[in-house]
TrEMBL record:
It comes from Sulfitobacter delicatus. InterPro entries: DNA_brk_join_enz, Integrase-like_cat_sf, Integrase_catalytic. The keyword Protein transport does not apply. GO terms for biological process: DNA integration; DNA recombination. GO terms for molecular function: DNA binding. Residues 150-334 form the Tyr recombinase domain. This is Phage integrase family protein.
Length: 364
């Protein structure tokens, strides 16, 4: 009588396989041996797998995931995991296969058994990816879905004008800001989409008044390095740029002391201006970045430029900032002096020699 671990030669795939039970679980997999003449080697490997399986069964290690594939798949789905391809996999592996026993060979066999003749990408998408996702989930390695509540608030042009008016009269809102530094920062962020932390640490050497561009160094985790283009309205509101020091200091004229939460330093001044404008607490400095993205795209319809100037590396991230806007937003922005459209020249005939002129900072 053959031992339970005795391997079986599978002629169809030219490979040795094992198929036996250890306690309540079934162990079936291919061995990495594809020569029928190596029977002795296959038997030795199968025996080692059998002994190791019983060792785990009798004395399970603390790190072993003693959970079946079926149960793991159920927990994975309950936690919000993609369930589209799970039913076939659950029927295949079931409750007889421990999740931590499934290796690449078992995955390859499952792919061939469940989807014979399918393309490699189909096998990867419908078998390997979901199996590995479940294993990562059970091992605590699965990336958790963000619990961040998507920010929906952005400012209409009319609300922005109220905010700018309050920042332009700081004494009326209880803010000591003789040089209107809060107005300058709000105007810059509305016009460029720069984050609060970026704005407060901005180097004036990056400013090019000829092209109305400012070089932003970006951050390691949030923004990519990029050029932003200031619309003329923002240039006018920001006013003269100092040649040295900090481009946008605190209301007292001193550079900000940058902390880990870099946007919080301007929260007090911004809050006074916001309250004076009659806007609610849902309007925060970061609302200005969402506002810029919505305004910019509504007027330009230029998705590539939105990503470039916004400093985003992914379209889905940019889409979180660009909100659904009314059809007349572009014209309402123009009525308030906000023009994000690229400069265009007159039509040119084929073969005509032309020169390209860039509009200077003094143009309207």
């Amino acid at each position: 009588m053959a031992n339970p671990w005795t391997p079986i030669w599978q002629q169809k795939d030219s490979v040795w396989i094992i198929d036996f039970r250890v306690g309540a679980r079934r162990i079936r997999r291919r061995l990495p041996i594809k020569e029928k003449a190596l029977r002795t080697t296959a038997e030795r490997m199968a025996h080692e797998i059998y002994n190791e399986a019983w060792k785990k069964e009798v004395q399970p290690s603390q790190s072993s995931n003693k959970i079946s594939f079926a149960k793991a798949a159920e927990l994975y789905e309950m936690s919000g995991g993609e369930a589209r391809f799970l039913p076939k996999l659950v029927r295949y592996f079931g409750s007889d296969t421990w999740i931590d026993d499934i290796d690449e060979i078992m995955i390859a066999k499952a792919a061939n058994d469940l989807h014979p003749g399918a393309k490699p990408d189909t096998l990867r998408r419908q078998v390997r990816v979901p199996v590995r996702a479940i294993q990562n989930f059970i091992a605590g390695k699965r990336r958790q879905k963000s619990t961040d509540v998507r920010r929906l608030r952005w400012l209409s042009p009319e609300e922005a004008e109220r905010l700018l008016a309050a920042a332009g009269a700081p004494g009326t809102v209880g803010l000591k800001d003789p040089n209107l530094e809060t107005l300058r920062k709000i105007s810059f962020m509305l016009g460029t989409g720069a984050g609060p932390g970026e704005t407060m640490t901005l180097d004036p050497s990056g400013w090019n008044p000829t092209t109305r561009q400012w070089w932003l160094d970006g951050t390691k985790t949030v923004y990519r390095p990029r050029f932003v283009v200031l619309p003329q309205r923002a240039v006018n509101l920001v006013g003269p740029i100092p040649e040295t020091g900090t481009a946008f200091p605190a209301p007292n004229g001193q550079p900000y002391k940058i902390h880990a939460n870099r946007g919080a330093q301007m929260a007090v001044a911004f809050g006074k201006v916001r309250d004076g404008a009659g806007l609610g607490p849902d309007v925060v400095p970061y609302t200005l970045r969402h506002t810029w993205a919505t305004w910019f795209y509504a007027q330009t319809k230029d998705w590539a430029a939105l990503l470039d100037q916004g400093g985003w590396g992914r379209s889905d991230t940019a889409n979180r900032y660009r909100k659904i806007a009314p059809a007349d937003l572009a014209n309402r922005l123009l009525a308030h002096g906000w023009d994000f459209r690229p400069e265009q020249g007159a039509p040119v005939r084929f073969g005509e020699l032309v020169s390209v002129n860039f509009q200077g900072s003094g143009a309207g």
